Amino acid sequence: MNNLMRRAKYIFCMFLMVHAISLAGQSRSDLRSMFVSAEGDRLFEDYAEALPKYLSLLQIFPDNYNLYCRVGQCYLNTPGEKEKSIPWLEAAVKNIDPAYRAGRLSENGAPPDALYHLANAYRIASNFDRALETYKLFLKDVDTEKYDTTLVRFQMQSCHNAREMMLKPADVDAINLGAPVNDRFSEFNPVISADENTLLFTRELPFYDAIFWSRKVDGKWTEPVNMTPQLGVDQDYYTSSLSPDGRTLLMYRTDTYDGNIYMSRLMGDTWSQVEKLNGNINTKFWESHATLSTDGKRIFFTSNRRESLGGLDIFVSARDSSGNWGPAANLGPEINTIYNEETPFLANNDSTLFFSSRGHYNMGGYDIFRSDLDENGRWSTPVNLGYPLNTTDDDLFFAPLAGGNRGYYGKFSTDGLGRMDIYCCDIYSDANPRMVIAEGTASQTVKSDKPVVVITAADTLLMQPDSMLDAMSVLADSSATNPFGKEPYEQTDSLTLTDRPVGDIRGKVEEQTADITASDVKPLYTEIPVRQADENTQAAAASDISPGKPSGQGDSPGLAASNKVSSDEIPAAADNITAGESAADIVTDGASAADNIASEVSGMTTGDQTSAMPPADESDEAPAAAEGSATTVADESADRTEANPPVIAGNNTQTVKTGNGRCLWWILALTALLFFFLIWKRRKNKKENDSEQ
Question: Which domains, ranges and CATH numbers included, belong to the chain?
């Protein structure tokens, strides 16, 4: 019996050892597979999938600065979450490895371009001093054979541009469309008919993104209807543009190997099933957005085909005599740059083009521009729409109305109904001045026999600000007819004028008053603070961070195609950061990504399973490069909001199976102890029984 028990114990222990070794090996393989999977997600710019995997790996390898960089990159490419990247990237740049090997879990150092990513994060956060210093730090030791520094210097100039534009904000009134158009989900890519009675947009649902349709009835939007069943689709489609009559919808979809443009028509009260546009529009390359002219005979779209000047460009195609789309032509260097151009929209006048670009004079990332077609058929130099329509983040989708002084777009907002909401805005300028309501008493101070007009509180005059000069000219004309038709002429000492915007879409009446004399109207009127309240609001908002849409549009889910062609970070082939190499070549340092990752060495050191977080930085200095570099990023504590890196254990991220080898060891050990305890208990009982006998 004793021999039998000893044999049983020996066999069981051997079984435990073999099983434990097998599980440990499987756990290590699982970790490597998870890293390979995360790297693949990142290469295909699926950052939402990659992020929880990198976070899980950091719990096991808390001293891996490459993983800190990867987490930072994921946040930096997640719309609405970009500023969260700063603490992770600040931790990563403390251990940059000049001999960095990409695609290896055993690589503990951060890549050199972590500094570039950190500079971009500072720029997006409007921390321009830190951004500029970090860009300079990156350029100090950059490998010019590997990186084209043109983009880096362009981003540095964008910091200066952003400062200028934020000091002189555009005159814009914006209103959140509210419920039922916006809700707790994200809504983006709005397209609208010319009469503003038909609205379509994309909504991010829990398991897929869907196109919704709403109509305006009695001045109110109806409950949006999910169009997925009508379109006959089971994949993610994204709104691209709507014809002025509201009956032809263009959409974008990411297909297996590329992006393509689709169309649907409104037949009565039902949208037709989608149809793919022909081969002159959709190619084996990436087509990501399209818009039609008012007569439907021309289509403007984006593509990264061979004829592109760089990355995504805007092309135009015309219908032939058979109604089919003919060969496409590049709009040329007036519109397209060596960087990406996206989301073109043609205003209803057919001569004003709105689009987004990473080139031209911008604030960083994508900015929205407008260009006008002259009588010779040439496009004017694109003009930036300015802050706050454009921000330091990606701003992509602006659907204009009429001549472009009004439009719809999606943006992230902390006080919205969801993470991203749809807004309508009016843009004012010299070409589109505000209308005001004038109330008060008109008079002249110069002694004269000529009477003046009395404007009473019961009378209002609707006019543009400059038109007040015309009204004041009535004061000097004794034969003039009273333009208000009620009060007699009267002479008093001064003119008191109260003005406010007409149809203030924010629902507030902003009133300002000033005295103006009839003898000196124009220079004094320019001092009336008509926009004072708006400018104060914009000045206060200048210190806030307004994250743009991701990618998507960059940033909305509907703009993922453009991100697959190019990224705002190094390396990115479409943005020409690397001379003569593809993005995959950069990541793998000359080898293919798959081969390099597959060659991951088996010897891995597992750290303590503590919650991974960037090491605490006791000083407020921005991180310097590795190797004890004396250069640091200048402190800008007055502008900077310290962001404490999140503790991974409390991040509320998706749980990913990691193998958890130590947990398995504990389970096996407790099982073995229980087994030996039962054997001991049985032997003890047997001895007691034998002694009683």
Answer: 2-143+595-661 (1.25.40.10), 171-428 (2.120.10.30), 436-530 (no CATH)
